[in-house]
Amino acid sequence: MSIYLDTNIFLNVIYKEQRFRSESAELLLKVHGEQVAAITSAVTLLEVILDMADSGFPDQVEAAVAAIEDLRGLGVVPLGKAMVKTAAEHVLEDRITIHDSYRLATALHSGASLFVTRDAGLAKKIAKYMEVGRQEV
After folding, report:
1. Residue pair 104/39 in contact by the 8 Å Cβ criterion
2. Which of 17, 66, 68, 109 is 20 to 30 A from 41 (CA-CA)?
3. CATH of the domain at 119
4. Does residue 134 register a pLDDT over 80?
């Protein structure tokens, strides 16, 4: 089994966010050391790229994405047709954003045992589908 990592876990480390950086970095070190098996959606890479470009760090995007892709215990899951259909259902039924629904669909279709995020609103919406953690793994 693996855990699903939300985009904000990566951004905590990339932006060196005081409040969340140490917990997120510790978790990513466990993933890199293959102590924890993790997955994330290909949408995560898109969000990291766009967020960094919008935040004024376009020159650092390539290094950040490469660092994510180099995490040994992390699988980056592409979106398949079944995941897209599941994501659409969650947008319509649960009023989850498109990007959040892609994340949930990826976690569900990949058999993740835990969804790790620091987004309390998202955690609340998806808790009925799977276990949600706030970075503590």
Report:
1. no
2. 17
3. 3.40.50.1010
4. no
pLDDT tens column, 49-59: 999 999 999 99
Please report how many Cα atoms fall inside a 13 Å half-sphere around the Cα of residue 50, on the Cβ side: 9
Q: Is residue 83 part of a domain?
A: no
- Cα angle 64, 61, 69 (rounded to 5 degrees) comes to 35
Would residue 102 count as lying in a domain? no
- Cα 31–80–77 angle (5° rounding)? 10
Mean pLDDT of 28-39: 97
Which pTM was predicted? 0.94
| Cα 9 from Cα 116, distance rounded (Å) | 8
Number of structural domains the chain divides into:
1
